[in-house]
């Protein structure tokens, strides 16, 4: 991806050090960590420090929003994590798909030894305790609502986990800390920032929306051309520039301003909205072999 023509995305990294300390301090209270990532950006939506921070605990990765991701790519990613000895499960917190597999999978894989030990000790009824971690907007609140039942308050993007330790009862004799750890991604790399901006994980007010949409259109033209053609009924080839793609979409949609020019801002917003809501089909922005 060519980043030269876009002003670097400036990103507030959150209180990273404070967050890390809070997570480390609370880790000893839990049996396992549930790390939520976005199935469309399995690398970019992971905080690169998370493996180090959580290395003392068993961990499962939840690839959330799998309804929006390319299912072939999701399978590749599950294999990728498996090769790294990490259990990963694809879920969709919006519809609830596979959510009921989470706790049984944790018990039969990453916590199998603990479960066996408790069985032998006669303490099998002890609840298992989890910490939920993930970058903002990845679906932490949605997961907690699914697991706890009933609508809970939106998780604030504030650092760390709660100071007052409270436990929320979940299904299957499981509990979790009442607030998840919100870990911001640290961007050493603009490609990561741009992919997160495509999915809406970075708010649009810190990016140039037209440039962002043009970058997305080029990515789609190269990687998912049929989806792009089907959605907007446009024709293009490898020589079509990003500006031309944006103009073609705008014209097809009748987004014209006085003088017959395309309203590129409106078109850009439409393209990004439609991508984010899945109207362009199931699309993954990074696959293991290319990373
Ligand atoms: P967070 O706590 O990690 O910040 O994330 P949150 O659960 O608030 O989810 C962020 C957005 O992602 C929400 O959309 C939520 O509905 C959506 N979402 C979560 N999981 C999934 C999923 O598996 N599939 C899809 N398609 N979307 C998911 P929103 O537009 O902010 O709110 P709303 O649509 O719920 O009103």
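-> sequence recovered:
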């Amino acid at each position: 991806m060519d980043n030269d023509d876009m002003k670097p995305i400036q990103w507030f990294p959150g209180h990273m050090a404070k967050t890390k300390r809070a997570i480390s301090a609370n880790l000893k209270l839990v049996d396992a960590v549930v790390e939520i990532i976005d199935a469309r950006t399995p690398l970019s939506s992971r905080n690169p420090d998370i493996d180090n921070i959580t290395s003392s605990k068993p961990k499962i990765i939840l690839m959330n929003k799998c309804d929006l991701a390319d299912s072939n790519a999701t399978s590749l990613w599950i294999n990728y994590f498996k090769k790294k000895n990490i259990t990963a499960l694809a879920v969709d917190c919006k519809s609830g798909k596979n959510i009921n597999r989470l706790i049984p999978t944790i018990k039969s894989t990453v916590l199998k030894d603990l479960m066996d030990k408790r069985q032998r000790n006669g303490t099998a009824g002890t609840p298992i305790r989890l910490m939920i971690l993930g970058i903002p907007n990845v679906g932490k609140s949605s997961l907690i609502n699914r697991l706890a039942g009933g609508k809970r308050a939106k998780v604030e993007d504030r650092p760390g986990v709660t100071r007052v330790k409270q436990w929320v009862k979940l299904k299957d004799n499981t509990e979790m800390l009442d607030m998840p750890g919100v870990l911001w991604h640290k961007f050493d790399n603009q490609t990561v920032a741009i992919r997160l901006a495509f999915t809406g994980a970075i708010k649009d007010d810190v990016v140039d929306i037209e440039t962002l949409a043009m970058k997305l259109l080029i990515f789609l033209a190269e990687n998912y051309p049929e989806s792009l053609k089907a959605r907007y009924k446009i024709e293009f080839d490898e020589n079509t520039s990003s500006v031309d793609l944006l103009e073609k979409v705008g014209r097809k949609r009748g987004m014209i301003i006085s003088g017959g020019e395309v309203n590129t801002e409106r078109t850009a917003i439409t393209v990004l909205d439609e991508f984010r809501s899945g109207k362009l089909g199931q699309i993954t922005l990074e696959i293991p072999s290319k990373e």
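The mean pLDDT is 88.
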